[in-house]
C-alpha cells in the first residue's frame, strides 16, 4: 500500500544533493560564517543526517513487513511494549522521541515481532506529529494482518516543548490509537488494553 507521504521527500530524488547548499544558506541567514573552519564539513554532515532521519520516506509498508506475516497458532493477544523511536516534529523540524507500545488481537495471521519495531521506525523517520505517528502505526498493523483489534500507545518528549516556547522539560505527551472490529466485545478489548497499560 502506498503512503502519500512517500511521494513528498524520497531520498532517491536529485534534490537531496542540494541539502548541503541549504545548510550553507541557513548559516548565512542566522549570522554564521559558512567558511569558518569548524563549519566547513557541516553541510555534508547535515545532509547525511537529514537523509537518515527521514529515511522512512523511501520505505513502504510492504518493504518493512516483507515476508514477516505468519499464520496464527492461537487467537490470544499479542503485545510488545516500549519500542523506542525517534522522530522529527513537522512544525519545527525538532526531534521528539519516546516509546511505543502495541497490542493486537489476531484473526488468522500475526506479524513477526521485529516487524512491529520496523513499522514504528519507518513512520518515525518522517516528519510527524505524534498523533498521526500513533494512528499510522495502528492503521498499518490493522490492515497488514486484518487484526480483530489494535491498540497503540505512544509516550514522547518533544524538543520543541523543552528547548523553545513554553520551555517545559519534564512534560511528556501520550497519544493512543484504539480500534476494534464489531466481533470484539468491550471486556475482550479491555483485556487487550491492560496488556500495554500494566505497570505504567
Ligand atoms: Zn514541534
Give an overview of the whole structure.
The chain has about 200 residues and is α+β, with helices and mostly antiparallel strands. It has two domains: about 5-55, GTP Cyclohydrolase I, Chain A, domain 1; about 65-195, GTP Cyclohydrolase I, domain 2. About 35% of the residues lie in helices and about 25% in strands. The protein contains seven helices and seven strands. It has helices at about 20-30, 40-55, 60-65, 115-125, 130-145, 160, 185-195; strands spanning about 70, 80-90, 95-105, 110, 125-130, 150-160, 175-180. The strands form two sheets. It has a five-stranded mixed sheet. Strand 2 and strand 3 (about 95-105) form a beta hairpin. Helix 1 crosses helix 2 (about 40-55) and helix 4 (about 115-125) runs antiparallel to helix 5 (about 130-145). It is elongated and about 65 Å long. Residues about 1-10 have low confidence and may be disordered.
Which CATH top level class of the largest domain fits? Alpha Beta
Bound heterogens, unique: zinc ion
Number of domains: 2
> What structural class is derived from the secondary structure elements?
alpha+beta
Query: Runs with pLDDT <50, length 5+?
Result: 1-9
**SSE string:** HHHEEEEHEHEHEH
Secondary-structure map:
Layout: H1 19-29, H2 42-53, H3 61-65, E1 69-71, E2 78-89, E3 95-105, E4 109-111, H4 113-124, E5 127-128, H5 130-145, E6 149-158, H6 159-162, E7 173-180, H7 186-197
Parallel strand pairs: 2-5
Antiparallel strand pairs: 1-4, 2-3, 3-6, 6-7
This protein binds zinc ion (ZN).
Amino acid at each position: 500500500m502506498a503512503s502519500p507521504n512517500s511521494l513528498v521527500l524520497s531520498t532517491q530524488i536529485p534534490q537531496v544533493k542540494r541539502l548541503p547548499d541549504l545548510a550553507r544558506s541557513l548559516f548565512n541567514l542566522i549570522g554564521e560564517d559558512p567558511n569558518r573552519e569548524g563549519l566547513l564539513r557541516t553541510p555534508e554532515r547535515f545532509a547525511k543526517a537529514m537523509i537518515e532521519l527521514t529515511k522512512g520516506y523511501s520505505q513502504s509498508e510492504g518493504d518493512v513487513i516483507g515476508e514477516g506475516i505468519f499464520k496464527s497458532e492461537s487467537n490470544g493477544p499479542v503485545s510488545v511494549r516500549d519500542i523506542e523511536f525517534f522522530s522529527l516534529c513537522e512544525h519545527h523540524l525538532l526531534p521528539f522521541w519516546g516509546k511505543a507500545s502495541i497490542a493486537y488481537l489476531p484473526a488468522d495471521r500475526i506479524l513477526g515481532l521485529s516487524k512491529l519495531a520496523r513499522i514504528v521506525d519507518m513512520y518515525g523517520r518522517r516528519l510527524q506529529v505524534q498523533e498521526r505517528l500513533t494512528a499510522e502505526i495502528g492503521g498499518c498493523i490493522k490492515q497488514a494482518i486484518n487484526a480483530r483489534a489494535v491498540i497503540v500507545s505512544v509516550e514522547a518528549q518533544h524538543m520543541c516543548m523543552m528547548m523553545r516556547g513554553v520551555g517545559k522539560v519534564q512534560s511528556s505527551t501520550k497519544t493512543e490509537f484504539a480500534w476494534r472490529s464489531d466481533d470484539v466485545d468491550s471486556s475482550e478489548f479491555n483485556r487487550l488494553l491492560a496488556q500495554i497499560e500494566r505497570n505504567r
